[in-house]
Amino acid sequence: MSNPPHRHVLSALVQNVPGVLAHISGMLASRGYNIDSLAVGETEDRRLSRMTFVVVGDDRVVEQVRKQLEKIVTVVRVQDISSRDFVERDLLLVKVKAPAGPKRSEVRELVDIFRGAIVDVGPEEVMIEISGRENKVQAFIERMRPYGIVELVRTGRVAMVRGASGPAITEEPPTSDVGTIRRFTTA
Hints:
Alpha-Beta Plaits; 4-stranded antiparallel β-sheet
């Protein structure tokens, strides 16, 4: 009997080469896996990128996603970090109607309460940056709705395990095309 569906955070270390994101997202889509959030960025080692996925499912489904990812030659390592002690953040940029006067003051006060920053000011609207856990970002969005959200963009979640060091890469990636790339080894 499997566990009920819940939120999993997967961290995948991948080779930083063209086509990796398309290959991975295509594979997941073709198998019917839904990704709630996906963030990709270069790591401290320019040869590698980290992909952070948020998926909802039971343990069996998430294990299948992990196994499918590990089959991709450009994927170095995949971990379900959900059960570990980790820090998670989401970044939000939101443009809100805030004409000069009392409404703008109210918006500015809410931004301060949520420890955000106003990053652009126009005559009728402001652009706000908020980062934090998913529930904090969502709560801020709900507080801004009555003012009138003009535009909104989020990064998706990024996460890192506390206190664990990253992999030491012991092999130089080949410089040939993607089809011949081998796996990195971790020490």
